[in-house]
Write a structure and sequence with these properties.
It is built from four helices and five strands, in the order H-H-E-E-H-E-E-H-E. The chain is of the alpha+beta class and about 150 residues long. The chain has a single domain, classed as TolA/TonB C-terminal domain (2-Layer Sandwich), CATH 3.30.2420. A hairpin with a 5-residue loop joins strand 1 and strand 2.
Length: about 150
Amino acid sequence: MNHRIVEKSKKKFIKRPTLGGGRELLRKFFREHMRYPEEALKNDVEGDVVVEYRVNSNGEVIEAKVVHGLGCGCDEEALRLVHLLKYQAVSNRGVRVTTNNRMKIPFRLPKKTSSGQLRMTYVPKQKPSEKKEKTQGSDKAVSYTYTITTKKQ
């Protein structure tokens, strides 16, 4: 007699909308789209903002709210970033499902140099028309480094 042990697999009856690319792509998205609030820069505010939001069956973020905030404009920026997210739409056998999500958005001050200078690097995105036009030497990435000197008080 041949007995096989059959493990039951957990079936997921409801599919949840997902972000393509995982955590690394999400971090990259935040780095590219975040505009650090001026008031937070002036007051040296950094930390994490926790946002709860809902995603509808089309992958759109709705009803976002700050659960744990920092103030100084960081809360508003976190809500703006969450509303920019686009999830992959799912089909649940014709049933429209709205899911609840929670996300921690990190706000870290740009690093200062020892002389009290602030260094930031900006890498511009290529426009779709620039991607099509491939000429010799155009595949080099362009970046700009800005150094801002602040007065010590």
